[in-house]
Amino acid sequence: MNVVRRSAAALAAATAVLGAAVPAVAASPSPSIPDGLYGTSDPKYDGVWRQSLALLAQDTVGVKPAATAVDWLAGQQCADGAFAPFRADPAKACDTKVMVDTNSTGAAVQALAALGGHRSATGKAASWLKSVQNKDGGWGYAPGGASDANSTSVVIGALTAVGEKPDQVVKDGRSPYDALLKLALPCAGNGSGAFAFQPDKKGKSAANADASAAAVVGALGKGLAGDSPKPTGAAPTCKKATDPEQAAQNGAAYLVKALAKDKHLTSALPGAEPQPDYGNTADAVLALATAGHGDQAADAMRWLETNSGAWARQAGPAAYAQLILAAHAETFDYNDFGGQDLVTLLNATGPKPAALPTSGAYPSEAPKSAADHAAAKDSGLGVWWIVGVGLVAGIGIGFLLGGRNKRRRQS
Hints:
The protein is an all-alpha fold. The chain contains 17 helices and two strands. It has a two-stranded antiparallel ribbon.
């Protein structure tokens, strides 16, 4: 998922797409952060998303989150089962003015299902997701919106998390996998097996790395935490896709090529200079590992290990969570990732965990230097504007979210 880009050019691009409302939001006073919420930036557009990623990453590596953090997420749910990005007053019933969405709901389901003890909440959320499924089998960000690869993949992960079989969740005879296959591009031409975010107004589809990373995971029936089967030992090849598994392999082949030149993906928002895209690179690594090609993603993981520190400090909990999930899937050492303990850094952005892993050296108190707090507070732009750009320009909002060998893969 694209988390934060702070350059003036990128902000100008967001302003150009979203209009004059962007500077007004950016200039607003720092919000009051609720107890239990991770991060210090305005949660209006990403509170549930970043909380879900943080909790999912902690659970993945054996950290038991604080009860206040879990309660905050569970308390954001509306009576019909849906989640909005953020509700300042959870005690107030949701009405038509509360903008619920599939991504917040799907991410919350995955986190709460992983933590356990929330079957009623996750069941209601899954029922709501099924009630807003589109006729093509997929989902858009907002209920009734055109299906896109990112949203459909997040919902697939949620359905899997609650024990549903996504291929059996159908609308007008079409499943989520049917929707993803429609967004899968052929091997010939510029698509090279990639997934599109969604067709443009003229019905044309273009390769999208963010959507491809999300859809590879979704087409394999996995969630935001991905998976890490034993590498196949061979590079993925693009073939005619007649089923979601082959479409996932085609998407993986596209991602291998996209990462080959610079070992990272590059963002190219309108009006902004191209720059490394750390979040989507982490998503691509996780996707390749999940597709059985973790060996093809090792160079990109090493690039992230060397270069992602400043980005993660600025972006906050969602960024640390993305790196942890990618490192875990890739069997890199997330406790010594470029000299940083990603888990300790993530823990420091929220309430003190209830319990830490029994194995591994974790301090009882996460360090919270003045510099760390300043960097976190300075990231007030948060995720809000990239979400808006994703919805308007179609670049997606992915993702795209113990007990194993944590030693770093050697070159």
